[in-house]
Write a structure and sequence with these properties.
This protein is an all-alpha fold. The protein has one domain. The chain is about 70% helix and about 0% strand. The protein is built from 20 helices and two strands. The radius of gyration is 21 Å and the shape is globular.
């Protein structure tokens, strides 16, 4: 066991170092990270649930599984490697599932989640992440992400047509708060949307309740259709859209994360909770900066405590996942759609920038974006898979430059 990668078992299992490094500043950073992480992606789950006809109990189970898995993997990784390794679910993955799970029985989707995470675990165990990235370059992966997410932004416009006062207020809140504090913009939209729904008589108060979550086990079913349509695109999205940016944030903050070991840990944890409805757990790219930056602690060797605190808060949130479900169920459909679209605007902008800025005239990202956004199905296989195939083909074959 190398000293630079891990700590001794004796240190891992003692609380002395943790007590020494503890600070309330770290607790607050961990709390902020979890709140920000929940405010946006959670609403996407309800979009998936509506399109896939999932029951509220299955939504609760999904949130429970995500929270418990993210909490445990965050705590273990952060303590073991003494760095703020906070994990979360794959936001692009949730967005992708809104269309990918249409008409797919839940057991088959669960089977696809397991296949995806087995692939992730093997990629981590054999150190194949960098090789995969060479075959699916960042502009192509970003275009795939953008093509999947853009539908949510368009949903804001259609919701504005149906409920102009409600959605306009949420949009205004988003941009006003974002001007002063970008990380709180989505949380502000949730608060404003809830208040406006109440004022406009569009909040179902009878649906609100506080209760403990009850996870639901679903036996997986494995089919080639779900593997091709869900597992493969989901794997590409999580590796290129979550793992790589998540590790990049940590490296920017001055850390050297053990990439392969973290990939393996997250993949294994995701396999264990997949039967309860969760798709992928991965290093966060959205909230990692909160626990890895100076606001978590001036001393970067003590910032891991912020991630540990976030892990504990994750578990608390997961325990009361049914409470969050009752909140979102009480909101109008337009409010939920507007919140989902606004929560993803920054991710869409980032995807477009990575896909089309400085790609040396390659049309591969555009081809991928158009196919992914089209939502086509050919031979029973969905748009995301064909977008990946087309992007790799154009980039590596049709646009490959031969030596002079």
């Amino acid at each position: 066991m190398s000293n630079d990668a891990t700590i001794s078992l004796r240190t891992f299992f003692t609380l002395d170092q943790l007590k020494k490094d503890f600070s309330w500043q770290s607790v607050m950073a961990g709390l902020v990270a979890v709140i920000v992480g929940y405010a946006g992606p959670t609403v996407l789950v309800f979009q998936v649930a509506e399109s896939a006809h999932l029951a509220n109990a299955q939504i609760v189970s999904w949130l429970w599984a995500y929270s418990i898995a993210a909490g445990l993997t965050t705590i273990v990784a952060s303590l073991w490697y003494r760095m703020p390794l906070i994990t979360a679910w794959s936001t692009p993955g949730i967005a992708f599932l809104m269309t990918a799970m249409v008409g797919v029985p839940l057991p088959e989707a669960i089977g696809a989640f397991i296949v995806s995470n087995v692939l992730v675990t093997l990629i981590g165990a054999f150190g194949l992440l960098q090789r995969l990235v060479r075959w699916i370059p960042l502009p192509v992966a970003s275009a795939l992400n953008g093509g999947i997410l853009v539908a949510f932004a368009l949903g804001v416009v259609s919701s504005l047509q149906r409920q102009p006062l409600l959605v306009a207020g949420m949009v205004l809140a988003f941009f006003v708060v974002r001007r002063f504090s970008p990380r709180w913009a989505v949380a502000a939209v949730l608060v404003v949307g809830t208040v406006l729904c109440l004022m406009l008589g569009q909040l179902d108060l009878a649906a609100l309740s506080v209760s403990v979550a009850s996870p639901v086990w679903t036996w997986p079913a494995f089919t080639w259709h779900a593997t091709v349509n869900i597992a493969i695109p989901l794997t590409v999205l999580v590796l290129t859209g979550q793992y790589l940016p998540g590790f990049a944030v940590l490296k920017t903050a001055g850390y050297e994360p053990p990439v392969d070991k973290v990939v393996t840990l997250c993949g294994t944890g995701s396999i264990l909770v997949a039967p309860f409805g969760c798709h992928n757990i991965n290093p966060s790219s959205m909230i990692a900066a909160i626990v890895a930056g100076p606001e978590a602690h001036p001393d970067k060797t003590r910032r891991y405590v912020a991630a540990v605190c976030a892990g504990v808060i994750y578990i608390v949130f997961g325990t009361f996942a049914s409470t969050f479900v009752s909140l979102f169920v009480s909101l109008s459909r337009e409010a939920v759609a507007a919140l989902a679209g606004l929560a993803l605007l920054s991710a869409i902008a980032s995807s477009f920038e990575s896909a089309f800025a400085g790609n040396n005239g390659s049309l591969a990202p555009l081809v991928v974006f158009v196919i992914a956004a089209s939502g086509i199905t050919v031979l029973g296989v969905g748009a995301a898979f064909w977008a990946i195939v087309a992007g790799v083909l154009v980039f590596h074959v049709l646009e490959r430059k031969t030596p002079a």
